[in-house]
Amino acid sequence: MYSNSDDQANKPLLTGTRLRSYAFALLTRKEYAKAELIEKLSLYAQDRDEVLALVEELSERQYQSDQRVAEMVLSSQIRKGKGPNRIKQALKHKQLDSNLILEDIQDVDWFEQAYQLKVKKFGTQIEKDPKQKAKQIRFLQYRGFDMNVIMKAISRTTEEE
């Protein structure tokens, strides 16, 4: 029985059209950030410079787009109930510049997002108990919302809707 590293050592490293085909195969399954794609291709490529040139070409021809990846991260994180700080963290993790979607982030009504999340988890009543209030604050902070948004969201009454 071969171990995974033995298989890796016996496989020929990719160059030229085989490397290009592998890059296209990756991109047809999933959007990759430039840094992710370089890392992924470098595992199988013979020459890192060839990988860098190929990824740059794919980016210029719009087969790979950091902008698209950033927009996908934004929409997916909003769906998951994450705030702007957690979204910026996710972008940094993918080695993407948050300036790519700066306008989109500013267009989101974070107060409404935080309020809806608070209602879903804790209901509409405004908490008077300091421990329960702190629990709501911690929950929304963990989700990546700013403190001023959190304070408005947890003290909003149903009449304000």
Automatic annotation (TrEMBL):
Belongs to the RecX family. The keyword tRNA processing does not apply. GO terms for biological process: regulation of DNA repair. This is Regulatory protein RecX. InterPro entries: RecX_HTH_2nd (IPR053924), RecX_HTH_3rd (IPR053925), Regulatory_RecX (IPR003783), WH-like_DNA-bd_sf (IPR036388). Residues 65-101 form the RecX second three-helical domain. Gene3D superfamilies: Winged helix-like DNA-binding domain superfamily/Winged helix DNA-binding domain. One of its GO terms (cellular component) is cytoplasm. Residues 108-154 form the RecX third three-helical domain. Transmembrane segments: none annotated. It is found in: Cytoplasm. It comes from the Bacteria. Keywords: Cytoplasm. Modulates RecA activity.
